[in-house]
Structure formats: C-alpha cells, structure tokens
Amino acid sequence: MSINCKINGKNTEIRGPADRRVVDVLREDLGLTGTKEGCGAGECGACTILVEGEPRLSCLMMAAQLQDQDITTIEGIGEPEALHPIQEAFVEQGAVQCGFCTPGMVLSAVHLLNCYPEADRSRIRRALSGHLCRCTGYVKIVDAVEAAARAMGKEIKP
Amino acid sequence: MTRDVPAVGCSFPRFDARSKVSGAEKFAADAYAPDMLWAGAKRAGIAHGRILAVHTADAESVPGVFRVLIRRDVPGTNRQGIVHKDQPVLAGQKIRHCGEPVALVLAENREALKLALSRIRLDVEPLPGVFDPEAALKPGAPLIHAAGNTLLSAVIQNGDAAKAFPDCDVILEDCFEVPFQEHAFMETENGMAQQKPDGALVMTVSTQAPFRDRMEISHALGLEFSAIRIISPYLGGGFGGKDGATVQCLLALAAMNANGRPIKMWWDREESFVAGYKRHAARLYYKLGAAADGTLNSLECRLYYDTGAYAHLGGEVLELGMEHAGGPYRIPHVLIQGWSVYTNNPVGGAMRGFGVSQVAFAIEQMMNRLAEKLRMDPLALRLKNALGRGDRNSSGVTLVHSTGIISCLKSIKQHPLWLNQADWKARAGRFKRRGVGVCAVFNAMGYGRGLPDSAIAKVELTREGRIRVYGGVSDMGQGNTSAFVQIAGDMLCQEGNQLELILPDTDRTHPCGSSSASRTTYTYGNALIRACQQLKEKLIHRASLVLFLDEPVGLVLLPGRVRHLPSGREVSFSTLAAMLPDSDRMAIDQHVMTVASDGNLNASGFILGFPHAIFSYAAHLAGIEIDALTGGVSVLFYLAVTDAGRIISPQGVEQQVQGAVAQGLGYALCEDVQLRDGKILNPSFTDYIIPTALDVPEVASMTVETVESTGPFGMKGMGEVGMNGPLPVIAGAVQDAVGVWIRQSPVTADRILAALDVNKGVGRKP
Fold first, then answer.
1. Is B17-26+454-592 in CATH node 3.30.365.10?
2. Mean pLDDT of the B689-717 span
3. φ and ψ at residue B415, rounded to 5 degrees
4. Going by CATH, does the domain composed of B278-387+401-448+599-760 fall within 3.30.365.10?
5. Is this complex's ipTM strictly greater than 0.85?
C-alpha cells in the first residue's frame, strides 16, 4: 500500500506493507540510518523520532501510522557542518561517545526544550530517562542539554 | 571539525562527535546493499545435549529462504577461540550452552529468516548439565569438554601465607559471589559480508579486533588469510563483548554460500543476551590477616571463575583477577589460587575490568571488615597499606612505573565530601539511612608478558596536502581515535579540519592489536608519536630542498605549510605533496609496550598475559541513602579520583570515568544475568536493568598529578579502572549505613531488606 507523509520537511510516499516497522522503513527503504535500533522492544529509546513534534519509538510503530504525519528524524535536525544548537552542545560538552544512543537523545532533548526552554537538570534527567546510554554515565548528556537551553535562551531573548 | 590546532593536555571536541550527533556516521549496523541477503543462527535453547539430528527441510521450504547450512557445510576446522580453539562455528555433535548455534539460515528478508529459524527442529539427547564452577570441578561432574572442566588453574605464591597467619593479630575469612554481567552495548553484534568473484571475502563488522578476526575466520573456515578483508567502523559500544568472534565466522560462512551476494547478520537484543559473551560470574574465598595496627600481613584466596561453555579469554580473565586479588596493597605473604572452569552457562569473556571487578569487590570488602574489626578509619587503613613506587605488589612485581594510589587516597581524604560526612549522614530524613563508602582499585594496562602488546602507526601527507592518520585499532566509543588525531595535530601543528582519519581496515591500516586492555591510546599513541616525528623531519627536510636551504634548520610546521623562520619563506603542504612520490608522503613506526621484568616470581599455571608492569589506579568515594522501609538504595554523590598519568584530553578522561562508574553502578545495584539450568531468564532490557539517567548521580571526576614516563605524553590507559570501584564502594557504604555486610552482588533492595531482617533477629547469625 502507499502511505503519504512528510519526512524532514519533504513530502514522501512510502510503498510497502502497512505493518512494516517504521524503523525499517526509515533505515532500509529511505536510507535514514541515523535512526538506530538498540532493542526492538521499546526499551532503549535509540530509535526515537519526532511525530508531529512528539518523541515516538519507531521500532514500535507500523508504517500505516505515518499517514498524513509530519516526521522528523535526526537527519532533519542538523547536518555535520550545520548542527542544531543542541547538537553543538553535545559536541562541545563531550556528550557523544559511541554515539549509538545519541540521535534518540538529541530528538528527545529537542522536544524537551521546545516544551520547557528552561528545563533544569532534574527535568532533563526525567525527559531522557527513556533513553539507555551505556557509555557516558549521562552526566555530560545532561550538561549538553543544560548548555543548549542556556544558549538557545540567549538566542531568543538577547 | 574545528579550525584550532589541537593541544595535547587540553580538551578538544571529539573528532567523531559531529558525524555521530547528526546521524551521519555509518556504523557497521548501518551497512545495507542492494540485493542483500540476511543471515541468522538457530540457537540450541538447551544447555547440554548430544545432537542426534538437525531437521532443516521445513525451513528450506519457506519462501524466500536462500540456503540452510549445518555443521557438515562448514569447511576448515569449525573451531574458533582467541587462545583456545574450542568453540564451534556450528555445533554438529554436542551442545554446551543455550546459545549454541546449530544451523545457519540465509534468506531474502528478515521475515523469511525468522520463520525459517522457527521451523528448524533439533533431535537432542539431553545431558546432565553443570552450572556452578565448584560443582563442575567435583569428581563425577558432567564433562563439558573431553579434556575436563578446568580451563586454567594457576597459583601465585609470595612469602609463606600459611606460616604467616599465626603471627597475625586479626584474621578474617569470607566468601563473595558475583553474577554474570551483560555488556549491553547499544549496537548489538552485527556485520555485513560479501565474497567477491576472486574468492576474497570483504566484511564490515562491529569488532574490537579486526586483524585477529582474519585469523579466526581463516582457521575456522579454511579460507586463505590474505583473502579476508575486515573493515571496522566506529562501534556502537564494545566494552570487551566484541573482542573475539561474534558474528564473524557465521557471517563469513554465510557469505561463502551466498553466491556472491552481500549478506548481513545483526543479532537482535535477545540473541545478544543469549549468544553474546558475559563478564564472568565468580565465587571468591578470602582469608586476610593483619597486625593490630592494620598492617596487612597475609592473604589466602581461592578464586573460582565461571567461564561458561567455552574458553574465549576465560583463562586470561582469571589470570588478571589473580594478579589483582590482593588489591593495590603491600601484602608480604600471599597464596592466591584460581580456577577458570567450564560450565553449561553462557560464555564468559572479556569485559571492561577483565576479571578485576570481581576481586576488587572481595578484597575491598575484606578491607572494610578489617577496618571495622580494628575500629580504624577505612581510608586510613588503605593509606597505611597502599602500594608506592618501589614496592612489590601481591603478585610479586616490583612497581617501577607510575604508582599513584596514595595520591588518589589523599585527594579523597582532603575532600569536603569525606571531611563533612558525619554532618551529611546526620541529615538523612525519616526512615532513611545514609552511608559513605571508599575504595582503592587498580587495573593493569596492556596484554602482559607473553603476548607482545604492539601497534603500528602510519601517518600520511595526502596528495591534497592534508594529514591523514591510519589507525588500526578500533574505536568502540572510548575516543582513542580522537586522541590519535589530537596527538598528530599537536605534533604536526595542523588544524582540526586539516586532519583525516582512516579507521581500521585490514587492507589499509597496519596491525595494531585489539581495542582492549586499556591499551589503545598508550600503545598506538607511542607508535604514532614516532611516526609523526619521522614525518615532521621528512617534511622539514623536503621543504628545505624546495627553498634551496643549505641546511634544514630554522624550519617549522605551521597549519598547511612549512615556514623558514629566518627568511619568512614558506612551502605549502600541497606543493610538497605534489612533489613527493607516494611512498615518500608517509611515515610508519611501531611500539611495543614494556612488560614486567621481575624474574623471581613464584607463579605457576599462567599461560599468556601475566604479569603486568603498568597499572592505572583510582580511589572512589560515594554517599548513599537507603530507604529503611523498602531497602532501596539511592546514590547521592560519587567522586572518582584517578591516576592515569598525564592527561591527553581532560574531557576524554571524564567520559571514561563517568561511563565506567555508571556501568559499575549497574554491576553494583541491579545488573544480574539470572540463570536457570543455563538459560537466561531476563534476556531483555525489560528485566535486565541497566542504569538510566535517573539512576546515575552527578559523578565527579578528578585526576592526580602523575607521569607515566613510558607513555605518550606521560599518559597511561585508564578506560577500565573506573569499572572496579562502584561495587566495593557501594557495598562499603551499605555497611556504613545499616551495618550489614554484602557478600553477594548486585546489592538489591531485596538483599538489603533480607539482611536487615536477619540483623533484627536476636542471636541469629548475620
């Protein structure tokens, strides 16, 4: 069947079984491999995407659920040479180690700071608690989101 | 990449961060190709048995199935293993653990693969299993391998422990148990492979040891060594679990039967639990004797490590555990005996801390008990016995290299968190009990004696005039390759955006050994320094020719160019590159790590990798709060002080410390591979709990000022030592908070509550 949606700002037609997992559609059919799969069971958060701005686990979604939806994957957030402020903060603060959990973390952070631009560390920790990271111990990830909140706050209110 | 010239000693944004944070970096798992097949293994599902038949017909008839392979389809020896070749690629006769692969399916897509795997039937004659290392050593225990259940047994003897005990004022005995731990890297084991028309096999694998993988595949499958090319992109975590064959041989076998088509194998999370390697479970018997003033005198231990069904590095893991069994202390009399034992449990292998995390728990709890018995401050007791340079450690090695444990302990002694602990504890709320723990840990660096720890570095001036580093040792996330770029940038004075990196590729980079043993930056870094020095001299000399200088003096490297300072004249790198033949644009050099040269060690049974010369050290301090009603533990503060020699990247060191502490807190508080008859009961993140952002405190990291004179810029490897602290430090803090001794990890709420209940009972033994 054919599913129409918007992915990273681009109108996209997805052909294939309606029950195909969204993570597979993104990675295998569309080549958007920035969306990672760490568990396939909704436990690790690595496959997080934004659907209408809300974080969703793409390993638990079927292709049909994308119909008419606006999807953002990590590729839609920034590029290596033109990063989003949150991504810049991850780089600067040393929040990236192996990097496999990073795209999901960044997307949840984008959503968090959209909702709570002045989120404190405890709110940041709660917002990221659905994302497993085995490398960093989370401290520098929280540092990065906190730094991004400050940097983005300054942009808005000079 | 930034335009700054990196400086060794200063934090520098990681070279891989931008591509990873934007999702652009391609991990092995991100490799797909048109016309690609999928491979998957059928796992035995029982722990011990004799294979009577493997029925594949139903699987072969599934639409989309390309081929189904069993033992008889394996060319070569069918045997893999890093030191002992005891592990079949596909089992044909015997099943030794639940994750044993018995058939390999090649299919057009994952749906067909899954269905076919479910349709393979096994006829198995079950055999009695053995699931405990001590039980496996008893006469009459079921034999897992024909040669017996002992993989390795060894003894370290110094002085005369038995004779020394009667002279001790206090003697303590205890037994500790730790379970298997899962690596739980986010990117599960995977790779993609293709056999070319000329027979050459090209594989992209998430691997910590691409060069060794060639040998494994060649040996197991009878392929020409030179016909195998392994490419190792950045790994989505490794921690030791991707050291040794995971998908490699199965995937190579699949590719050899895929009619030239590319084929991908990617274990799902459950398969990663069931078939992947684990940190060894262990039972540790300790007897420690000391003088009334706390001076350690005598130690006896018996260490039983459960290596599961196959060797992997189980012998070497035990050896390192034995080498660290006495902690970073002076103990004149020791008798350390160890056994690495086969069972029908999952396969034990390398994991960060490599046998040391287990014994660190035991020796540090013994130190805590000794402090309590002698009414001594636990930190003072450790300081009194801590090793200094010139001392002999408990395996008899004279410490001639940097030895910073005393500095680490002193840093904690002066820290406000330590000094103000009484006030802090008194501020616990209702039904809360606070406790503080401290520990001293260490971890050897490198392979140790008997296995040269070597790396070959290559650095090139590209045709475009940029600097390219060829790093043959994998980066599993620890950031070693960023350190390489930082070193090359500093030495050759090049800006970040002028630097390039080639990740391990057996066709392009030189053998550098595995990404393991806290060795990557040390060994490769030393080789790289020499290669950079060579290239620098070469560029200066060649530039002097271009500038018609009588002598190559007064020339310096600047970003993208060489300048003659006296005249101010310059030659750009691109001009130089254009003039030089390819073979002259590069420099290659090597390094072999120094080993301990003590010749009078009284140790027997060791095969490879004992002893070590250089260690990193750390002292950890943690404050916990226990809910007296639930037994739940919250870690409220954590401080790690590390001796890592001089620091190349402060941020990089913090990353390693914080990550290791988080992994260690998981080991301390919640991680437990639960087994019944060798079957994992919790093979998912639903039931196997690793710490989240809500469980790990704001881990603070400090380093002490030491210099490892043999290391690149004075550094030494420190990726593992942080793993060894959390379990002992938490166990000590629990005792401090509620007065119960933890002997079995993880320290769960259940165990604390049970211990509290026992303590309440009058006259009952704690």
1. yes
2. 98
3. -80, 140
4. yes
5. yes
